[in-house]
Design goal:
By secondary structure, the chain is mostly helical. It has helices at about 45-50, 70-85, 90-105, 110-125, 130-135, 145-160, 170-180, 190-205, 210-220, 240-245, and strands at about 35-40, 60-65, 105-110, 235. The strands form two sheets. Strands 1-2 form a two-stranded parallel sheet. The protein has a two-stranded antiparallel ribbon with strand order 3-4.
Length: about 240
């Protein structure tokens, strides 16, 4: 069976398809150093949950991340950077909101866009020199990446900045995917979204969604709005340089 990736998850699966799990939950850890190989997770959800639920373990953990798209590596570096930021630099509440926006929203606040722009610039200045990068980001190492891969990471980080990608009309791209996915059912919006939320998802045991929030996400790509603010800026961490170069 031939599957058209552009009509399914897309050429890049920005998010994992399973709930976050603690990778150590089923194991009794009695080693000083633990190496974990993470293949195709798409995001940092499992790494973050595993670490957060293992704070009482004295072992040292090393997570080796393997992805088929360099954009996913870049996104996980970003997610881990936010998670590892000291509270004195970014409070827990602000950190959580920023993480949720950059992780799951197609449109973000202007302040979050500015933070992403500044962080991308810092990554660009250090990524090609592993010694400098490791000094500024002690919890993340790119030593095992080839020079070519670090160059590709640099290109990816550049697309996160306004000056390198001034026009990123993600709302149009999102709507195009919705049209492609729904086909003739597109004209039934918002009823089709209400049906999916109230029937399809609830039949699968999912009860945490509200129809209004679910419909907003399906139509706009905005999943999280923890603040009463304007979510109008494009989330450039969802851009790929291979399509905008």
């Amino acid at each position: 069976m031939i599957v058209n990736e552009s009509e399914a998850l897309g050429y890049i699966a920005w998010w994992g398809l399973t709930p976050a799990i603690n990778l150590f939950e089923e194991f009794k850890i009695n080693q000083e150093n633990i190496n974990v190989f993470c293949f195709g997770f798409s995001d940092a959800r499992n790494v973050i949950k595993s670490i957060s639920q293992s704070m009482n373990i004295s072992s040292k953990f090393k997570f080796n991340i393997f992805e088929n798209s360099i954009e996913l590596v870049a996104r996980q570096i970003l997610q881990l950077q936010i998670a590892c930021m000291p509270v004195k630099e970014l409070g827990i509440q602000e950190k959580t909101e920023l993480f949720l926006e950059l992780y799951g929203d197609a449109l973000i606040r202007e302040s979050s866009e500015t933070w992403l722009d500044e962080t991308a610039t810092k990554f660009i200045k250090t990524i090609t020199d592993t010694g400098v990068f490791d000094r500024f980001h002690p919890h993340i190492s790119v030593n095992n990446l080839k020079s070519r891969d670090r160059d590709h990471l640099e290109c990816t980080f550049k697309t996160w900045r306004r000056k390198n990608l001034p026009k990123f009309d993600i709302s149009t791209y999102w709507d195009s995917r919705v049209r492609q996915h729904l086909g003739v059912r597109y004209d039934a919006i918002p009823n089709i979204f209400d049906w999916d939320c109230s029937i399809t998802l609830r039949d699968r045991g999912i009860k945490t969604f509200e129809s209004k929030e679910y419909g907003r996400w399906r139509s706009s790509g905005v999943a999280f709005t923890p603040r009463e603010a304007s979510y109008l800026s494009p989330n450039r961490s969802l851009a790929s340089p291979r399509y905008f170069s």
